[in-house]
Amino acid sequence: MKQILLMIRPLRQAKEFVADLGTVADAFDVLFDPIVQIDFLSIDLPAPQDRVFVFTSANAVAAYARQHTVQKIRAFCVNEATATAAGKAGFDAVAGATDAAGLVDLIDVDHVTYIRARDVSFDLTNALSRKGVECEEFVAYAQSSLRLSMDSLHAIETRHVVLPVLSNTAAESLIDQIDPTEAHNLTVVCISSKVSNHFKTAGFSSIIEAATPNRAGLLTRLAEIGSGCG
């Protein structure tokens, strides 16, 4: 029987992630069960002309692209997934940081426009201010946590489930919903040590970290698991 690959990201992003696995995905029974809901907020975002943008998620890019068409406007992005989304939206995307804190050293201009979620784990605006960079921020979307479906919970208790986790928010939500004593066949594959620490502290037994702390490293680790090398 195949392992289950449980994808908990918003559906569009989850399907893109599975597609990027290529033939490796055939090694799994894929179960989509988003536990994060994205709600775009009613806010007028500024026109792109004469601005340099900062995006820390693909959802922020999507929020902006709902209102404006962009052509070759510079944008600093966290991770390659966000940079790819920004590039598709017409931005001249600059990647190179794996988290928002890493963007502080990357940004080399005096003024940026930061499109962000309502709740963020790192105060980028304050960090940039200490560096002397003026950061104009716009809260464009909110995230809310959803409960895992009964199908997912049953699978975790009865099947070997591989669960990629890409954020601290997702980790916290999962820990609130899954009893580690009932999840002996669950393998959590975390994008970084920060994410994996949530599960270690909660007492989960099978935790694997990405080869590198980014989307590509997570795909690499899943490919190893799918081929029986993980």
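(the above was protein one; protein two follows)
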Amino acid sequence: MRKQDSLLVVLTVACVALFAACTPTPVPPTTTVAPVDCAARGPFVNLSGCDLRGANLRGAQLTGANLTNANLTGADLVIANLTNANLTNANLTNATLIGANLRGALIGANLTGAHLGSATLISANLYGANLTNANLTNASLIEAHMVFAILSGANLQDADLQAADLSYADLTFANLPDANLTNANLTRADLVVANLTRANLTRATLIKSNFYYAFLTEANLTDADLTDADLTDASLGFVIWSNTTCPNGAVQSTPCA
């Protein structure tokens, strides 16, 4: 009886082994990545590293496109839709993006001298991006991530920067009259000789920011935090002081000494 039981066990094991051998090994799923095609246009195309200098992309639908390291110098991207497109390290020097939708990744992108008037950059990631002398008049940059961004000489007149993170940003000589910086974070931002005339800085975080020779005439500093900020030789005529935290830590509704 024991021999029969042993034989049965052996046969069972053999059958299991045979079944396993005949069962195909599952193939792990693969992610399909579109090949680079520099002539392609449309949503989700792969244009990474493409030379698109001077390209006519006016009104192009490039939602989710991969434009990492692409050269878009002088390209025409007026009213183009680049929602969620990846423009990491792309070169958009002197590109025209008036009215374009750029709600996506622009990490380290070169936008020197780019024309971004009325562009939509809501929640855009512009970490370390170079926007030197860029035109961002009327641009929507609500909740944009602009830490370490270079905005020296940029024109941000009437721009909407509500809740934008501009900590450590270079805004030297930037033009920000009538800009909305409500709830913006400008911790350690460099605003030397920046023009913030009539800018709304309500509840803005301005800790250790440098306003040396900056123009803050008629700016609204209600509930703003200027702890350890440098206001040396800044123009502060007709500023709205209300529950403002001054550089010395004092909270007051009178001009900071």
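Reviewer note on protein two: Residues 133 and 245 are 31 Å apart (CA to CA).
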